[in-house]
Amino acid sequence: MSLEEKIFKAGIVGAGGAGFPAHLKAKSRVEFVLANGAECEPLIHKDYELMVNFPKEIMEGFNLLIESTSAKKGYFGIKEKNEKAISAISKHLNGKSELTKLGDFYPSGDEFELVYEATGKLIPPAGIPLDIGCVVNNVETLYNIARAEQEIPVTKKFICVAGAVKKPSSFFVPVGTSFKSVIEFAGGAKIKEFGVFVGGVMMGKLTFDLEEVITKTTAGLIVLPKDHYLIKRKNQPEQNWHRIGKSACDQCSYCTEFCPRYLLGYQVEPHKVMRSLGFTKTGASVWNQMAELCCSCGLCTLYACPEDLYPKEACDKAKTEMKEAGIKFIQQKPVKAHPIKEGRRVPLKQLIMKLKLQEYDVESPFNPKEIIVKSVQIPLLQHIGNPSVPVVKRDEVVEEGSVIAEVVEGNLGAKVHASIKGKVTGITEKYIMIES
Ligand code: SF4
Ligand code: SF4
After folding, report:
1. Interatomic CA distance for residues 353 and 226, integer angstroms
2. How far is Cα 198 from Cα 212, in angstroms, rounded to an integer?
3. pLDDT tens-digit readout, 309-338
4. Ligand 1 site: residues with CB under 6 angstroms?
5. pTM exceeding 0.85
6. How many CB atoms neighbour CB 232 within 10 A?
7. SS3 string of 65-123?
C-alpha cells in the first residue's frame, strides 16, 4: 500500500486547524516539504509538547512525506526559543532536512510566512504552497502519518487546555469528547462563569456550550472568565462591530500597516475594507476586494487598531459578500515583501500583554494519563470537503479504530473512525454517537 493510501485509510486531516485531507499532499510531487512546529496562538503549547515528547514519530512522518513526494529537501519550522523541542527534533534530522529557526512572533506559523522564511519563495496571491513546489504539514499531522504507516487510524486528538483552569496541560483525548470532560481533565475551571475559545483566542471561535466536542482539528481550549476583556470584545452582536466601525474608524491605517499579509506583499488593506461599512449602497464591492487575501489572523482587530474596532470581522464580512456576489479579486501587482516587514513583527509576549492574558501565560505540560470517556459524539465533517457518510447502524457494536463513516467516491473528504469501543447509540446528519 502506498503512503497516500495508508494516510487515506487512517483518516488523517491537517491537525493544525484547516483540516485538509492529508493523503492529497502525500501524492503530490514537490521540491520542499515543510514541517510546521511554529505554534503561535497565545497560551497554546500542544505542538511544543508533542515535539518534546514524540520527536521520533514526528520525524518519521516527516521523512516518509519527503520520500513519497520525491522532495529535494525538508525544512522543519520551529521557534528558536523552544530549546528543548529543538534538541529533541535535531537528534532525528537526516541529511535531507534542516531546521528553520523562527522568532517568537505572531503569526510565524502562518503557511505563507513559514514558506517565505524557509525557502524565500512567496506563494502566489490566493494560491497554495503546492503552486511553488511546497507542501506544509503541522507536526501533529506528521505524527499521525508515522502511525498510519503502522496502520493506526486517527482516533485521538492531542490538545492543550489552558487559561483559567486548575491544571493547564496537554494530552490525548478521544475524538468526539465533550469540552466539559476535557476541562475536567485539566482540573476544572477556576471560576464559575466562563467562556471557551476553541482553537485559540486569535483565530478560534468563542463558545459557552460545554457539550460541543473535540474534533481532529481542535488545537486546544482556552478557558477565560466571562468578564475577561477578550470575551467582552468577542461576545458583541455582529451588527455592533460594524456599526461602531462605520462611525469610529478614522482611517489611520494601523490595521493595514501591521497586517502580516500586507507586509508580505499581498494586497490586503483592512483600512480600505472598513470603508465598505459606510459605502453600503455604492462602492462596498470595490473596498471589499481588499479583504480577499486576508487570512483572518486577527492581528488588526486584537492588536493594531488603537480604537478597538473590528477590521478582521469587516474582512470576514467582505469575503462573504464577495462570494455571494460572485466577485473575485485578482492581484495584478507582483508580490514583494515590504522593506519594513521585519521591523513590524509583533512579539508574542507583547501580544499577550495587549490581550490581557499575562496571568495565564504558563506552561501546559504533557499529561500521559489515558483519558477514558463513557460517550463520544463524532462529527461527520471534521475536514475540508464533504461530510463522510455513516457505514454503521444504530445499536451496532464497534471497536476503537473501526471505520464508522466513509468518503463518497469522487468527494473530497476523510474516513471517520470510532474513537472508543462501544455501541452506536445515535446517528444524525452531523454526528455518530457511541457509548461504552
Ligand atoms: S485579519 Fe487583519 S491583520 Fe490578519 S490578515 Fe486579515 S486583514 Fe491582515
Ligand atoms: S486601525 Fe482601526 S481606526 Fe485605524 S483604519 Fe484600521 S480600523 Fe480604522
Report:
1. 19
2. 10
3. 999 999 999 999 999 989 888 898 899 999
4. 259-261, 268, 270, 294-300, 311-312, 315
5. yes
6. 11
7. HHHHCCCCEEEEEEECCCHHHHHHHHCCCCCCEEEEEECCEECCCCHHHHHHHHHCCCC
Record the cell numbers describing residue 161, joined without a space: 487546555
Q: How far is the CA of 311 from the centre of ligand 2 (A)?
A: 7
Give distance in angstroms: CA of 114 to centre of ligand 2.
27
Q: Which residue has the cell 529543538?
A: 86
Pairing of strands 220-225, 422-427: unpaired
- Angle at Cα 415 formed by Cα 410 and Cα 420, nearest 5°? 165
First-to-last CA distance in the chain? Answer: 32
Find out whether 395 and 424 touch, Cβ atoms under 8 Å.
yes
Between the alpha carbon of residue 360 and those of residues 42, 164, 167, the distances in Å are 10, 7, 11
Who's near 223: CB < 8 A, 6+ residues apart? 161, 162, 163, 164, 165, 183, 189, 194, 195, 196
pLDDT 10s digits, 214-231: 999 999 999 999 999 999
Say if residues 167 and 360 touch (Cβ distance below 8 Å).
no
Q: How far apart are CA 417 and CA 401, in angstroms?
A: 5
Q: Whose CA is nearest to atom 2 of ligand 2?
A: 305
Band of the pLDDT at 278, cuts 50, 70, 90?
A: confident
Tell which residue, 204, 196, 212, has the closest CA to residue 164.
Answer: 196
Q: What is the mean pLDDT of residues 382-398?
A: 95
